[in-house]
């Protein structure tokens, strides 16, 4: 098929490359000059395992990257829309880029086409866009086809989707979109058809539900610390129930990224716009913000409240492993508190350090924030090690080397990744999240 993907951000770039890999002729439209130049040279401006190799495989073969709007919108069979829809102050999504695209389609389109919304949009956006095109007699059918890509596993998710939602009022347009996914659904029928509004709502509902599981476990984890219960044992106990399952029930330092926070705010805004309070959604957000702040409480339990002159090692800065995305990352909450209180921070992250350097240029320039090229360099003379992102690189450290490098053997495990018994035996002071059944956790909480 001949198709155009608008927007070379995370969703658009992954979609364009995977669809080109299957033999489609794909035109990727990008307006940002720096990003456009990088892509045309085969360089990916984001961190996603395997994506740059795939781009180089399809570039200038099945995939053309351009900034020419007329070329991109002239006569595609499909237009996949992956423009940004950021949060506004009130939680609603900013659809300005989408409406700018609609005007460009009006100006440049020469043949009937199907416009497929991959961007996460407010419920009712597809209907409003369809009405806009019909009022102007523009031959476009709007379909909502939400993305469910996980950062760090996006190629696998696109190539082997668990489900494909097609929200459309026009059966012919829905059939065209379904045909696009045939190479990805040969082994199992995963295509679900519904109306546009239902597809739009489904994306929000999925992310809100997953976020609720995380906040639920984090709330129980705090209670567990007060009643001498290890939340990890509880996680295993409830995760073995098939009705619950094992996914998204890990206590930790909260969720971040571009999807869960933004989509929860948008869903809450939708409720307010209908005069309907949604206290459960508000509670999920409030719990998550508290969970990030609990990192500060935990470190105070280890180091006391005066951090001036202390050195603290951070392992992990991205909001999750296998990405360089630091948007609303829990690590940044602790990092800001450390810098504000005069601590020196020594940090390592396999992918996110350039983004952190750009976010905190003054701290980097002054030396208060030191971004280290390898994990152990971050430990030298530090008074505590804080694990904040569960990269594989950090799973099995050399604890004898860690002990030798740290000024004080203190570990804040924000992801419950380490064995508290092993560390206690070696002489470490350990704090995790919800490890209230552990003697070391109880002693540190009592002393705080």
Automatic annotation (TrEMBL):
Question: What Gene3D superfamilies has UniProt attached to this entry?
Answer: Cytochrome c1, transmembrane anchor, C-terminal (1.20.5.100), NAD(P)-binding Rossmann-like Domain (3.40.50.720)
Q: Which reaction does it catalyse?
A: UDP-alpha-D-glucose + 2 NAD(+) + H2O = UDP-alpha-D-glucuronate + 2 NADH + 3 H(+)
| Gene Ontology annotations of biological process type | polysaccharide biosynthetic process; UDP-glucuronate biosynthetic process
Q: At the top level of its lineage, which domain of life is listed?
A: Bacteria
Q: Which residues form the active site?
A: 259 (nucleophile)
**SUPFAM superfamilies noted in UniProt:** 6-phosphogluconate dehydrogenase C-terminal domain-like, NAD(P)-binding Rossmann-fold domains, UDP-glucose/GDP-mannose dehydrogenase C-terminal domain
UDP-glucose/GDP-mannose dehydrogenase C-terminal domain location is: 313-420
**What GO molecular-function term can you cite, just one?**
UDP-glucose 6-dehydrogenase activity
Question: What are its E.C. numbers?
Answer: 1.1.1.22
Q: Which residues bind substrate?
A: 148-151, 203, 248-252, 256, 320
Query: Annotated pathway, please?
Result: Nucleotide-sugar biosynthesis; UDP-alpha-D-glucuronate biosynthesis; UDP-alpha-D-glucuronate from UDP-alpha-D-glucose: step 1/1
Where along the chain is NAD(+) bound? 35, 85, 120, 151, 262, 327
Alphabetical UniProt keywords: NAD, Oxidoreductase
Q: In which family does this protein belong, per the annotation? A: Belongs to the UDP-glucose/GDP-mannose dehydrogenase family.
Name of protein: UDP-glucose 6-dehydrogenase
Q: Which organism is it from?
A: Atopomonas hussainii
């Amino acid at each position: 098929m001949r198709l155009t993907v608008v927007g070379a951000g995370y969703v658009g770039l992954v979609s364009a490359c995977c669809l080109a890999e299957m033999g489609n002729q794909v035109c990727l439209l990008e307006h940002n000059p720096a990003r456009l130049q990088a892509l045309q040279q085969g360089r990916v401006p984001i961190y996603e395992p395997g994506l740059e190799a795939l781009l180089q495989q399809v570039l200038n073969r099945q995939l053309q990257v351009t900034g020419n709007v007329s070329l991109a919108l002239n006569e595609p069979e499909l237009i996949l829309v992956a423009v940004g829809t950021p949060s506004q102050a009130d939680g609603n999504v900013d659809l300005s880029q989408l409406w700018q695209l609609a005007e460009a389609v009006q100006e440049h389109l020469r043949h009937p086409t199907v416009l497929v919304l991959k961007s996460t949009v407010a419920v009712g956006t597809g209907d409003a866009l369809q009405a806009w095109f019909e009022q102007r007699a523009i031959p476009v059918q709007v379909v909502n086809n939400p993305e469910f890509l996980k950062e760090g596993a996006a190629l696998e998710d696109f190539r082997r989707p668990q489900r494909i939602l097609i929200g459309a009022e026009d059966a012919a347009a829905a059939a065209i979109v379904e045909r696009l996914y045939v190479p990805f659904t040969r082994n199992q029928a995963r295509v679900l058809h519904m109306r546009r509004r239902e597809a739009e709502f489904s994306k929000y509902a999925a992310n809100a539900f997953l976020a609720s599981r995380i906040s639920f476990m984090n709330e129980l984890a705090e209670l567990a610390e007060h009643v001498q219960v290890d939340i990890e044992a509880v996680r295993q106990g409830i995760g073995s129930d098939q009705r619950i399952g094992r996914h998204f029930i890990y206590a930790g330092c909260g969720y971040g990224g571009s999807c869960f926070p933004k989509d929860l705010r948008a869903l809450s805004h939708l409720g307010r716009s209908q005069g309907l309070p949604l206290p459960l959604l508000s509670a999920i957000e409030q719990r998550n913000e508290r969970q990030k702040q609990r990192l500060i409480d935990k470190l105070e339990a280890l180091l006391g409240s005066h951090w001036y002159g202390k050195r603290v090692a951070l392992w992990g800065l991205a909001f999750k492993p296998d990405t360089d995305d630091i948007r609303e990352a829990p690590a940044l909450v602790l990092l800001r508190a450390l810098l504000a209180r005069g601590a020196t921070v020594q940090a390592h992250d396999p992918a996110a350090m350039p983004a952190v350097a750009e976010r905190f240029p003054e701290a980097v320039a002054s030396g208060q924030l030191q971004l280290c090229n390898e994990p152990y360099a971050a430990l030298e003379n530090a008074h505590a090690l804080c694990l904040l992102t569960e990269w594989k690189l950090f799973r099995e450290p050399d604890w004898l080397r860690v002990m030798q490098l740290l000024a004080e053997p203190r570990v804040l495990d924000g992801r419950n990744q380490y064995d508290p018994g092993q560390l206690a035996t070696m002489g470490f002071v350990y704090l995790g999240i919800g490890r209230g059944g552990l003697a070391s956790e109880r002693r540190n909480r009592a002393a705080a």
